[in-house]
Amino acid sequence: MTKLKIQFNTALKSEYAYSLYAALLESLPRDIAEKIHRENLLSHYTKASFWHVSLFDDSALPYIESKLEYPLRKHNVTLNVVNINRITFGEKEFCTKFLLNDEVKNSVTLKFQTPTAFKVNGEYANIPTPHLIMQSLLNKWNKIMPQSSLEEADILRELESSVSLKKYELKSVLYAVKNVKIPAFVGEVTLNLNGNEPFIRILNMLLAFGEFSGIGIKASLGMGGVEII
User: Fold this and answer.
1) 15 pLDDT exceeds 90?
2) What is the pLDDT of residue 151?
3) Which of 25, 45, 121, 170 has the greatest number of CB atoms lying within 10 Å of its CB?
């Protein structure tokens, strides 16, 4: 998986996210674009003059790194690329980093950079409970990391029982996707992680994975962008 930090020549408005995604797909070969869209192999969000893009398929990477401008017809603007930074992890490398090498963190603060929401029984939920956070991360992990899937019985129950909400500073917002305004939230959540060291390492790994996958719904459309503080 690859995380790109693409800097443009101007600050990005939050409503640019969907148009950037559309402009990118239009510039890719049709088979690659359809695969990325169909299988949700890309998550992204905008912040200041940067576009943070995570890819879970490297077929689009050379096209993105060689693309110098993004015409956003809906907004009557063309964005020019100034710089691109890249971080890449293989599946085994990422697991080894958190399960064996890195220092264990018993407390993690998540900063939700863009509006985030969940879907519960067909309805939007805009309160980030430990259950919803871990459920989202687990589902994304098992889909994107098939060789390292965590599908043991009751694993979600064990994960959420080991995570407690320490403090939060949140604000409710609306996120417009096409003609729908989704109730969402932005802000910070600090989680306490409990249990034995191997299990806390799994929690550290899943939470760090959220920086790539996003948390909650519609990460491919600019929602759920998160950074670990």
Assistant:
1) no
2) 77
3) 45
Asked if the 91-228 domain carries CATH number 3.90.1150.10, the reply is: no
DSSP β-bridge partners for residue 4: 53, 86
How many angstroms separate the first and last alpha carbons of the chain? 21
Domain ranges of the chain: 2-88, 91-228
Distance CA 25, CA 119 (A): 26
Q: Same fold for the domain at 2-88 and the one at 91-228?
A: yes
